[in-house]
């Protein structure tokens, strides 16, 4: 049966917006990966024009009217399809209504302030001086709370900000998950062994790394018919269109493992995007990614649960040895495997291993939540930061650049973003545990055949093809049979740490 | 003094259109150079959306109104600036009014027909059967004449089509130039010597060619701060923004000269675009390229007048020898220089040398002009084509694929495009002769220092920075002191042919 015309009209407008957003992704990918340096200024203008236009369309009266008419026409839709359409409009209107509540002057002020703050932050970080950043950070915190006030909240202002990245998440629930995790993590970190990377004493050329890295996306199921692997300053993945999901990495001659794990991580993101594009009526509001936490669960799953597993390396080790022009005597399987699962307390989040990483996130979540909720002041951040690092990781921060100034997020007004990283770790462990339970002998296919299709198939049906049909909690529950909980991440880390401690 | 508000408003709208056109260029460049194969379908949609939008804006009532108000406000502009503004609006309105005269149904039919024709042409060419293409070609010819009727002409319908590519050109004037040229060319071709390429018997790796080719754009004055060199199926150059002018080439292991001359050619195009972007109030209608003939003159000048000159190769020869891992015994300067300036009658335009190339163009011009003006019929094309090839080049066409079906242009409705190639050759010779006369000792800088800045400086001031301020005839006259004429091209080819015939 054909769609009521009003639904078709609204969807057409939606698709137009989506097409232009994807054009923005092309412009962005090119600017990070290909653009000659002097192109920057004009490209910024191109990107601003595209986002201006899509924003205008999204909040403008034409779209609003099309949506209203479409909602009215739902009475003509067969009962069986009705609830999907209702979900679609609820997802859509939630975003639109939030945007509507923010006065235009506020949006302008927010974006001007954060644009300015980026340079101030970078300079303060260079000079290791938090006090140079605190004034503008205070302004950003103030604006973020104002944003929460405009949109409205029931429990705490921080929930509003969180909601932009992790739909429907509540700080109190995340706090529960994170406290469970923290309690266990601190002793795990204490007992976890550290192993030096066997690569750190030798040089591995970019060409050798690239040869190996280019094998990985197709191996996991991301064909180069729909993807590319390139180099950029910060690795990322992006969707430029229905069948165009690109990833980047960077190569360090003294640390080839970082490019390998970067590629596994970004491939996981792109596999999710590729799976979403397979949903029958892509693109629609229900074929967009569900939340940042779910997105990150897909990257972390391939990076950690798969990429640090024994069976994965049983397959990849001989290929690595050959691609890198080494012998088994140069680097043994055991040394490689141990270094991949090594733990070391460190001060910098982006350099952290899979165990300590979550402590970095938990401390940021605790601090930014209190900051937004008005329980602490900007000027107290360095001291608070340093004492938490001492408490959770036993390390002494020597200057603000290796402490509270290390991350870009707050300068961009990105409060509520950090917790999604650890939510990703929690979800990925829970997903993988459910997959394991349902799939006997998968290790054999991983290790002997380099065949990961059983896992991809599971993810496609349980996660990717679900799109935005359910909310995060129901997705996790229906995929794993349990509400989101930290048990499986704790289990995974404990058993990993004990395994590598005894070989 | 500030601009009248109405002028500022109109320019702002102009710049918006231009920004989106440049976004279209990013999408196109990416699709030819970077995009994974499966991205094609969705990318076509993105490109169609962008060109739909820019077309809508260009012919829409808002722009028309802004232009009308801007024109009215010219009375407030100081006398000294008035004529420039008048030229700007005359250029602008000329294009807009032409577009207005074409009914929307006609534009749709034209584009649907040519879209269809592309596949028909490709299939007919594959099967060497012109008769399979003739029906749709007849339709395109009919539509093209209809287009000329809608727009209106004084002398002949072909002038209207020509005007889209070479503003203000008249077929009768081009015919005069081309007949002068043809009369001289036919005997030159007869006497011109052929020399085998010294590379044809050896393999030159893509890497070696790339090493040399990457030296060329910066050498000529196109820095990689504002450019890139990549590989694509058909070499091209494109402007993606004010300081983002990219070129492509392709590499053949048996013919490294083709990549070198491809890069010189495309660099010439991009140097012109880079020069246009240096004009103070870029972007405006007067900072766009003047005509395809002028654009092509800039590529041909660097490819032929510079790139096939003795002084250029005195500089580049030792570098080529070293980059290619050869010695002077492998390939001597003289053999290289002779092969670069070798002449050979051939049936395929895109493989033709600098001398015979123009005969390929002249025969196309003669045929397409008569076709559009109704003097000949589509069904007579093969016979006519073959007899002209026999007459001008002494060659016998064996099948339509090496004859009348070889080029894509007519299937796209591109009547009037071909002559701009030879206009480019005519202009480039005339420009270079004027530069030579004004610049003593330039050969020494070329040969000893690889310093081409005297030439670039001349082109910048006489051509590039002139933008669209004058029409083609006045530009050529003011740059060279003479109206466009074929004398310098004939002189150049004659002296080249006699030089390489006696060394
Ligand atoms: Zn990620
Ligand atoms: Zn050209």
Annotation keywords:
2 domains; three-stranded mixed sheet; homodimer; Neurolysin, domain 3; binds zinc ion; globular; 64% helix; mainly alpha; 503 residues
Tell me about this structure:
By secondary structure, the first copy, chain A, is an all-alpha fold. Chain A has two domains: 5-113, no CATH class; 171-501, Neurolysin, domain 3, CATH 1.10.1370.30. Helix content of chain A is 64%, strand content 3%. Chain A is built from 21 helices and three strands. Chain A has helices at 5-33, 40-59, 61-72, 79-101, 104-126, 131-151, 157-165, 171-191, 206-213, 216-220, 256-277, 292-306, 310-323, 333-340, 357-372, 381-393, 419-438, 442-449, 453-462, 472-480, 487-501; strands at residues 229-231, 237-241, 244-249. Chain A has a three-stranded mixed beta sheet. In chain A, strand 2 and strand 3 form a beta hairpin. The mean pLDDT of chain A is 96. Chain A binds chain B through residues 16, 19-20, 22-23, 26-27, 30, 34-39, 41-43, 45-46, 49-50, 224-228, 240-244, 246, and chain B through 16, 19-20, 22-23, 26-27, 30, 34-39, 41-43, 45-46, 49-50, 224-228, 240-244, 246. Residues 265, 269, 296, 299 of chain B line the site of one zinc ion.
């Amino acid at each position: 049966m054909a769609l009521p015309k009003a639904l078709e009209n609204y969807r057409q407008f939606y698709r137009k917006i989506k097409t232009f957003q994807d054009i923005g992704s092309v412009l962005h990918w090119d600017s990070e990966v290909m653009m000659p340096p002097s192109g920057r200024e004009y490209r910024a203008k191109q990107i601003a024009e595209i986002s201006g236009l899509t924003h205008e369309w999204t909040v403008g009266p034409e779209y609003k009217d099309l949506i209203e008419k479409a909602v009215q026409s739902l009475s003509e839709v067969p009962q069986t399809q009705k609830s999907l359409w209702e979900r679609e409009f609820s997802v859509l209107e939630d975003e639109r209504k939030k945007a509507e509540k923010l006065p235009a002057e506020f949006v302008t002020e927010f974006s001007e302030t954060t644009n300015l703050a980026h340079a101030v932050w970078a300079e303060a970080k260079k000079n290791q001086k938090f006090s140079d950043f605190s004034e503008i950070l205070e302004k950003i915190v103030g604006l973020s709370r104002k944003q929460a006030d405009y949109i409205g909240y029931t429990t705490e202002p921080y929930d509003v900000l969180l909601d932009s990245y992790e739909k429907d998440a509540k700080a109190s629930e995340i706090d529960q998950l994170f406290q469970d995790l923290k309690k266990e993590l601190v002793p795990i970190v204490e007992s976890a062994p550290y192993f030096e990377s066997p690569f750190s004493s030798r040089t591995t050329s970019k060409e050798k790394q690239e040869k190996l890295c280019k094998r990985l996306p197709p191996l996991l199921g991301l064909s180069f018919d729909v993807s590319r692997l390139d180099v950029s300053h910060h690795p990322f993945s992006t969707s430029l269109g229905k069948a165009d999901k690109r990833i980047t990495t960077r190569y360090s001659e003294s640390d080839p493992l970082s490019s390998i794990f970067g590629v596994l991580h970004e491939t996981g993101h792109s596999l999710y995007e590729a799976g979403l594009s397979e949903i029958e009526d892509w693109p629609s509001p229900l074929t967009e990614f569900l939340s940042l936490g779910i997105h990150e669960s897909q990257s972390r799953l391939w990076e950690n649960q798969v990429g640090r597993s024994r069976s994965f390396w049983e397959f990849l080790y001989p290929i690595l040895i050959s691609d890198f022009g080494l012998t088994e005597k140069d680097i043994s399987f055991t040394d490689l495997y141990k270094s991949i699962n090594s733990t070391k307390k460190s001060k910098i989040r982006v350099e952290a291993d899979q165990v300590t990483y979550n402590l970095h996130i938990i401390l940021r979540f605790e601090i930014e939540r209190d900051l937004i909720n008005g329980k602490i002041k900007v000027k107290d951040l360095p001291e608070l930061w340093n004492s938490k690092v001492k408490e959770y990781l036993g390390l002494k921060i020597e200057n603000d650049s290796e402490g509270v100034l290390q991350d870009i997020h707050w300068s961009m007004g990105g409060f509520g973003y950090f917790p999604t990283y650890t939510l990703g770790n929690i979800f990925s462990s829970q997903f993988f545990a459910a997959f394991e339970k349902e799939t006997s002998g998968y290790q054999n296919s991983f290790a002997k055949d380099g065949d990961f299709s059983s896992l991809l198939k599971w993810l496609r049906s349980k996660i990717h093809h679900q799109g935005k049909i359910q909310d995060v909690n129901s997705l996790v529950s229906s995929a794993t049979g349990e509400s989101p909980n930290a048990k499986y991440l704790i289990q995974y880390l404990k058993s990993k740490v004990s395994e590598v401690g005894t070989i």
